[in-house]
Design a protein that fits this description.
The chain is of the alpha/beta class. Helices cover about 35% and strands about 15% of the residues. It contains seven helices and six strands. Strand 2, helix 2 and strand 3 form a beta-alpha-beta unit. Helix 2 runs antiparallel to helix 7. The protein is globular and about 45 Å long. The chain starts with a strand and ends in an 8-residue tail after the last helix. It binds adenosine-5'-triphosphate (ATP) and magnesium ion. Adenosine-5'-triphosphate binds next to helix 1, strand 4, helix 4 and helix 6.
Length: about 200
């Protein structure tokens, strides 16, 4: 099977993440997309994630439950730091016959060399990179060429609608009593309301 992996903090999950999953599924004819909420993402340690894994995973589940080929992966649910290279290694061990496609946005493609043992990520998956923010297709192709030549990576451009949405902006809006309807699925709006998430500064 061809598996897309959509990793993130998902604090909270939003339609940008979901569209990346949907368009990767279509463009690369994948069988499933696994949404993988991070435990304590190493590069965000200093910012301290305010929201429990339990809530972030529950919001992912609420967002994807009615799409049969979207799954929630709890591979990084154990407390402590998880690294992408390690998680991909675990997936490879456990599912030796699957082919893995790691989905990410431009900001991640440009910072990947700061990730722990990032060189070990390239042999274990194909990377699908989507545009984001001010990075245009020329910037993307330049970075893809660089990583391909330098690390023998297999990176392909994922064409998805450009959405200027981030979890950070969503958290800020809630803090300011602004609506986030249509930026996250209705089920996620409801979950945030029910659990009073993001209403106070952490
Ligand atoms: P935060 O603002 O908290 O960093 P985020 O919106 O960037 O949240 P993450 O969980 O950090 O979401 O992102 C997970 C992955 O999804 C990253 O690879 C990121 O580049 C990608 N991504 C998130 N939002 C978008 C978007 N609007 N367009 C393209 N890629 C996105
Ligand atoms: Mg981010």
């Amino acid at each position: 099977m061809k598996i897309g992996i959509m990793g993130g903090t998902f604090d909270p999950i939003h339609i940008g993440h979901l569209l990346l999953g949907e368009f990767a599924y279509e463009q690369f004819k994948l069988d499933e997309i696994w949404f993988l909420p991070n435990g304590t993402p190493p590069h965000k340690e200093t910012e301290s994630i305010g929201t429990d894994f339990k809530h972030r995973a529950a919001m992912v589940q609420a967002a994807i439950y009615d799409t049969p080929y979207f799954k929630l992966s709890l591979q990084e649910s154990k407390e402590g730091v998880h690294y992408t290279y390690q998680t991909l290694y675990e997936f490879k061990e456990r599912y030796p016959h699957h082919e893995f496609y790691f989905i990410l946005g431009a900001d991640s493609l440009f910072s990947i060399e700061t990730w722990m043992h990032f060189k070990e990520i390239f042999p274990s998956c194909i990377i699908l990179a989507a545009m984001r923010d001010d990075k245009d297709i020329t910037d993307m192709e330049h970075q893809i060429n660089y990583l391909t030549t330098r690390y023998d990576a297999d990176i392909r451009v994922l064409r998805a609608p450009l959405l200027e949405i981030s979890s950070t902006a969503i958290r800020k809006r809630i803090l300011n009593n602004q609506t986030v309807r249509y930026m996250v699925p209705n089920s996620v709006v409801q979950y945030i309301d029910n659990h009073k998430l993001y209403y106070e500064e952490t």
